User: Fold these one by one.
Assistant:
Number 1:
Amino acid sequence: MAPATEQRRHVLERIARGISERAAGTTSFHVAIDGPDAAGKTTFARDLDDVLYPMLPHGVELRRFSADDLIIPLELRRSEQAADPRWVYENVYPLDRIREITIGDPVHEKPGTVVLVDGMSLLRPELEDLWHLRIYLSVPESVTVQRVLDRLNQEDDEPEAVRARYQERYLPALRLYREIADPVSRSEVVIDMRDPDSPVVVRWGGL
């Protein structure tokens, strides 16, 4: 993997410093990295992990997981139920499991532990109380679709079938999420990720 560009590194380092400062003295510090599909959330979380860990005091733990590891199976995403965008929004993740993993075991969690969680629609009302810092990675719908198509392999569906599912199911579900939760307004940090090598921070949120 190519090293991060100067601009991307600057963004990661500034966010990492802010997290390390805010997490100090807390029981645990939960960071949501939200955004639409193919915004680069998991890669951003991994890179942030790499930059943040050396900044934390010795012995402080850093945990990271992707909510996409818990997403409903492919057969459900292609089912008749999933033709309803609201059903997709309400059922895409097991929210109780996201909460459980994020909180971990408070009895054994070391003070100042930082937890990075990436995924779609993490800022929904049901998880509102879980997060201490909200980061939203923004890309237009056209970029989402093109990136999904670009990463298809020979074992995937035909591009037009994938495009149709996004247009008819997944993008409407994400629009519903934005309507219900307004994640851009409620995120402390908002980053335009149309060019992942040159992210543009729209709002720093005091970091």
Number 2:
Amino acid sequence: MTRSKYRQQNAKRIKAKEYGMKALGHVHPEHDYIVARQERYIAAWKSGSPDKIMAFMDSKELHYSVPAMGHEGLSHSATKELFAKNVSGFHDLDIKTRSLHGHKHFTTWEWTLTCKGGVGSNGERLSIEDASPKEMIGCNLMWWNNDDKIIRNHEYGQLIE
């Protein structure tokens, strides 16, 4: 059986709301725990509040990286500044999980993000009516401590044209 044919057959078995290995019939004991935690993290992003997002970040050990934007090993304060700038640039932010793998201390999270861009080409703030739709796909590698705080994050994303 070809790899393509195998994927097509298995795709029919996977339900839309099942993430990661659970969809393939393999359930890590911490699967439900990491899904629930990730849903809380997504809700913080959707809130548009940098403080709610930063509640998931360890204030002392955080190293946050977004290589595509040229950000490597940002501290807690630098990450908060980045989030404050980024979340103010969106209207109608929505994040969907495509897959989530891992355990309590390390997860890989594949996502899609849709929004309307709230900042124009000259840096001006756009109304929701004037904003154009945007879509991104990406993946985060996330290391978590015992307090469910992110201590290291590597984010990789790409704008879909």
Number 3:
Amino acid sequence: MQAVLKDSGLKVTTQRCKLLKFLTQVDKQHLTIENIYQGLNAQGETMGLNTVYRIMAHFEQAGLVVRRLFESETAMYELNGKPRHEHLICLTCGKLVEFADPLIDLRLWLAAERHGMSIDHHSLNIYGHCFDCKQKLESKSGR
């Protein structure tokens, strides 16, 4: 963790190391600040909510994490450096699924080329209802 922080130009502190370690070990890949705060405290790491906000802002500035805003407008964070991917988001339960599709990448590249652009980065979020929520919605409406 220390090397990653140093390579990113950040000062190495115990709290930054603990937070980065947590992010690399947690199963869920899209976390709110509150998720991170609760997860750290559940592991016995005492860190204030304001400290988590401050460290995550430094991590974002250093390029260690990516901050994303989805439909809920609550910022979610994921580690940077993951392969390019898109997001499917359920409007009812908030389920978030990452997926990669080479055809989407090809279409984006072709569109950019056709219009004389190059792509530095992009964001594609697709909103709908997961099958569980869709089934519940349909059963409530009597379909």
Number 4:
Amino acid sequence: MDTGAAGATNKAQETDTVAPAAREAAEAAESAVPKPRGHGSRAPHFIKRSRTLHLTWQIGVAIVGFAVIVAGLIMMVIPGPGIPAVLVGLAILGTEFVWAQRTLLWTKDQATKAAQRALDPKTRRRNLIILIVGVVLIAAAAGLYLWKYGLAMPF
């Protein structure tokens, strides 16, 4: 951002050449759109100044992030919120590592696409038909079992 005399001169030239309504519309559009954060470390500035401190910070973030991801993977086998934990671990790693930021963005894009596909009327109809057929098959199997064996368990 230029705040010097050259910036003031450029602003004056811009004011003369651009219509005020167009300038106001451009400023409103620019302020309405949030500026994307850049990739890379989001460590505080005082940590980034020292190479050793920044490396220590990154190691700490990596340990915590991978621990949360491992806990999420374990929770996929045992009861617990496995997938959200893995995503939180990626978000923690994404504060320092670009590969984790990109992986998290790719995952968000895939989830959005899957949600859009799931809301498609044809897909919803197909899923409903599959559900109904599955329930009917399970009910038929349960009825057949009860007809053949009754309520007693076969030991």
